[in-house]
Amino acid sequence: MTAHDEAAKRVARVGLRHAEEVITLDVVGAEQLLAWAARERVAGLLAAALDEGTIVIPDEQVEAVQHLQLGALRTALAAEAAAAEAIGLLTQAGIRCTVLKGVASAHLDHQHPELRSFNDADVLLPRGATPTAVSVLERAGYRRQEPGLAPWWERRYARAVVVHDPDGLEVDLHTRIATGYFGERLTADLLFRGVSPTIVLGDLQFDALADPSRLLSSCYAAVLSRGSHVRLLRDIAQQLLVTGCDWREAAAIATEADGEAVLARGLLRAQDALDLAPHDAFEWAGEVTPSARAARALELSIAGESEGFRADARSTLLALGTVDRARYLAGLALPPSANRRARGLTITHRVRAARSLAASAVSRRRDG
Amino acid sequence: MSDRVVQRAREVVWRQAHDRVLLRRVGDHSDRAQADLHGLAALAWVAMDEPMTSEQFIAVLAGADLVFDPDEIAAALWLLIDEQWMTSSGEAS
Questions:
Q1: What is the pLDDT of residue A304?
Q2: pLDDT value at residue A18
Q3: Which residue from B minimizes the CA distance to A70?
Q4: Terminus-to-terminus CA distance in chain A, angstroms?
Q5: A66 to A3, A60, A125, A229, A289: CA distances (angstroms)
Q6: A177: Cβ–Cβ under 8 A, 6 or more apart, which residues?
């Protein structure tokens, strides 16, 4: 392991361990660390590691870290303001909603919100609320990123819709915390179980997900969404080791949603990436065996890295009954014309795509 | 001014950077939606977790071994109030 790799690991777990040895980087090592921190959006953690003195970089590069952190803080603040405005508008319209990931973790799990960087606002809505929520926000000047599928389909199956506020900031409206099988199985009733802590953003106060549900949400995001996830793995460690989330309750919720393997993988990835000390939760995670469907959905999640939405859709089908499968595919096959035009697709193209989805679902049933 | 209670405007979210405080007004998409506070104004923002008078603020600063001219403090608070990042009302209890 290079000094840069060790320093990156140190940044990711800053504040979680006592008496870390000091790592001193030269100019090249510091440049690599800065580039990594920018890519992984962990500028706040890097600044904290420098403040703590466990990482030392040349004086001339300290200013670059401060500049990086300032940019990250501006972005997070803009996203937070967008989240607060959206939550306020949706709540006034009678839609119960809360924040996920960055905003929630920054305020509820980290010692101070400056430590947690994020680029967008993730808002969780009740299932079925997407078309109404989009209308409410559009009346306030928000714009949807692309025209949606049929409203009946979005009410029933949409996982997330992206809108932009009048300043162009991204707000992701989620009705599920993950795509595919696992997102479909984890219902709002399960997620909103337990005592909700309060988040205060400006003059707005609202309920967040309870601690175990936030831990579960972080694990789902780290395991099932695409790309690199150092900040999500840090969230997991933070929620488990600092916030003291009840991981057994998280496991109980996951069990009801066939998501134990996702929780387990998230915990183990965090332990491995941050080199965390042994913990009962990691021991439990090491013994979890996924159900057959969960194993298949995990395979599809990995396939999604290259296949994209096709793999997500096949994963969703695993959670649906026969009638719902037909409805789900029909909605994908026959999107409204505005959606087709925006994506440059013809009806024939869409039907062909949906037919191959249906064929793969049939062959899977035959195989399994 | 000295007996007026000053507090942060409620519709503002903020972050503390190494040399400044960043402010952003929720629901405001105009040019006046954001500001960077430096020096005394930044200190005032951070100190005002609770509403307080300028005299109470001076005491807070003194407790942190920071001494400023009371006129400078009053000017910084008035600027924040004038720009609607803070509000003032009533008298201290």
A1: 84
A2: 76
A3: B17
A4: 42
A5: 21, 11, 36, 22, 44
A6: A100, A124, A183, A186, A191, A216, A217, A220, A221
* ipTM given for this complex: 0.91
CA distance B89 to B7: 9
- What pLDDT sits at residue A154? 84
pLDDT digits (tens, 9 = 90+) for A98-125: 999 999 999 999 999 999 999 999 999 9
The pLDDT value recorded for residue A367 is 56
> Quick check: A81 and B24 CB within 8 A?
yes
Residues 6 or more apart whose CB falls under 8 angstroms from that of A104 comprise A98, A199, A208, A209, A214
In chain B, which residues have their Cβ closer than 8 Å to the Cβ of A80?
13, 24
Q: Exposure string (b/e) for A243-276, b if CB count within 10 Å is 16 or more?
A: bebbbebbbebbeebbbbbbbbbbbbbbbebbeb
Report CB contact under 8 Å: A66, B27: no
Which pLDDT value is given to residue B93?
A: 46
Residue A143 near chain B (CB below 8 Å): no
What is the reported pLDDT for A151? 85
Structure tokens at A30: 């510091």
Q: Contact B16/A112, CB-based, under 8 Å?
A: yes
pTM: 0.89
Nearest residue of chain A to residue B35 (CA atoms): A74
- Kindly determine whether residue B13 and residue A88, on different chains, have CB atoms separated by under 8 Å: no
Helix, strand or coil for residue A53?
coil
pLDDT mean over A165-170: 93
